[in-house]
Amino acid sequence: MPRHRKPTAAERRNKEKMEPHRTLPSSTATPSLTTPDYLFRSIDEVAKRLKPEAPVQCVFPEAVRTQAKRFIELFPGTVLYAVKCNPGADILRHMYAAGIRHFDVASLDEARLVRGLFKDAKLHFMHPVKSREAIRRAYRMGIRDFSLDSAAELMKLMEETKSARDLRLFIRLAVAGNAAAYDLSGKFGAAPSVAADLLRHARKVAAKVGICFHVGSQCMDPVAYTAAIGRALDVATKAKVKIDILDIGGGFPATYPNLIPPPLEAFIDAIKGAAQPLIDQGAELWCEPGRAMVAAGAAMLVRVTLRKGRRLYINDGTYGSLFDAGALGWRFPVRLVRPQKGGKGNTYKDAGARPPSEKFVPFMFYGPTCDNLDKMKGPFLLPEDTQEGDWIEIGMLGAYGSTMQTRFNGFHSEVVATVWPEAAPFAFERPRRKSVMTPGQPEPATQQVSAMRRAVTPLTMPKATEQPQQLSLIADEPQGSQQSLNAPGHSQGPPLSAK
Ligand SMILES: Cc1ncc(COP(=O)(O)O)c(C=O)c1O
User: Fold this and answer.
1) Structural domains present in the chain
2) Is residue 251 lining ligand 1, measured as CB closer than 6 Å?
3) b/e per residue, 271-306, with b = 16+ CB within 10 A?
4) Of 243, 325, 377, 378, whose Cβ has the fewest other Cβ atoms within 10 Å?
5) CA 343 to ligand 1 center in whole angstroms
6) Distance of alpha carbon 282 from alpha carbon 285, whole angstroms
7) Quick check: 415 and 57 in contact, CB under 8 A?
8) Residue 307 gets which letter from DSSP?
9) Does 367 sit in the ligand 1 pocket, CB within 6 Å?
10) CB 79 within 8 A of CB 46
11) pLDDT tens digits for 378-421?
């Protein structure tokens, strides 16, 4: 090409194909939320090129879109994405591109964020306790769906909307949360008799009425939904109110190393069966998944600041993206990232970098703040020679990861990288091993090494015919496989702009 000639469109497209990482896709160009925001071929490339000192949220667009499409396809009703779970603008855009148009928002800021991105988004304010100002402004923004679990909140809603006649009011029913790894039953939800009263009152003032509930996050047993739907039916019957919408909330599980749930299909089947009487009466079915939609859609790339024996001090922690690993003691899949220098085909030896040890040992993580609670017991299995300066990919952190960050002790990172076309290595359910573990019990290191040496079993999406599994804590495949696993359902297309 002559030096001063402008490249033709075909030449530009060709160059982008050759060097996709140099092209900033418009779907992720949101500097205020994600800075800097780049496209990388793999997580290793993020480490190699950015050499990040701060944690980086690595988003896998295909994993986000695949799961959103899966929910839309399987759920017999309307799917609302629970924005709180990961409000990243790029995540929201991938959701939208996959067909999600309904968003469950918990605050005015979330409502404004979604409305700012998508003019046609349908917003639903499903937080049962809202400030008067939030109600007023939300109504002015066009939001008509609100949840409540008390007479006082119903009063506020009526006063702040000047007794609007076009409200759709959802009574949040108290339901059991004991099948969930994270019980949410202690804060919201009206007892059945109170819910029946509220439903009767709501029927008189609202255009439409519904019942909603939340069975707790990372719900491990479909029976929890069946029981909650049964309770909602009882309340509607007792109140003698025909409900227009049943919103079964969030709670759908993701797959973590020590929390392996039955497949999504088992939950959907149970929900369909239990809700059939309401569907037959003409009621709509809604759900508000958060975790299950995005958990596999992002990983955190963190760096080791110091090693003390089997304790790794890393640059992210309980006050950052690892709340669930610290406060709840959940294990996340991990992988050492020690990029070699040089181009394709270079070995660690050529580059002068040491290849990681083949022996895997359990580590604990310590976060960057000075607080004693800022530690994560894991155990996290990593090569024995993991050291200061290494990076670690912590998978399955698309849900309640970066969104939980505080600025405590001055640690905070908004760096987001889009990883494409490499698949999220921990995206979908893996084949189960037979052995049953108690939480926190370290896996034998040898298992992990043998997993590395084994040919990688392709990940499979759960089949609709799979039987629901028992609620149990069962060891996943060993963590830390150095290979990048290609999950099925990954298209070859680039992360397109949602707009
Ligand atoms: C009202 C509501 N809907 C949906 C969700 C999303 O739940 P999950 O991430 O467990 O699917 C939450 C989470 O707290 C919630 O409070």
Assistant:
1) 15-57+295-453 (2.40.37.10), 61-294 (3.20.20.10)
2) yes
3) beebbeebeeeebbbbbbbbbbbbbbbbbbbbbbee
4) 377
5) 44
6) 10
7) yes
8) E
9) no
10) no
11) 999 999 999 999 999 999 999 999 999 999 999 999 999 999 87
The Cα–Cα gap between 221 and 396 comes to: 20
Residue whose CA is closest, atom 12 of ligand 1?
250
Ligand 1 midpoint to CA 453 (Å): 39
Say what the pTM is. 0.81
Q: Which amino acid is at 499?
A: K
Assign 3-state DSSP to the chain and report helix, strand, coil percentages, each to 5.
30, 20, 50
Cα–Cα–Cα angle for 421, 424, 425, rounded to 5 degrees: 120
Q: What average pLDDT is seen over the chain?
A: 82
With a CB cutoff of 8 Å and minimum separation 6, the contacts of 122 are 101, 102, 103
Query: In angstroms, what is the span from residue 377 Cα to ligand 1's centroid?
Result: 26
Consecutive H or E run containing 234: helix 223-239
Two tokens at 13?
A: 């497209």
pLDDT in tens, 266-319: 999 999 999 999 999 999 999 999 999 999 999 999 999 999 999 999 999 999
Beta strands in 63-204 (DSSP E): 78-82, 102-105, 122-125, 145-148, 168-172, 180-182
Instruction: Quickly count: other Cβ atoms within 10 Å of residue 237's Cβ.
Output: 12
374 close to ligand 1 (CB < 6 Angstrom): no
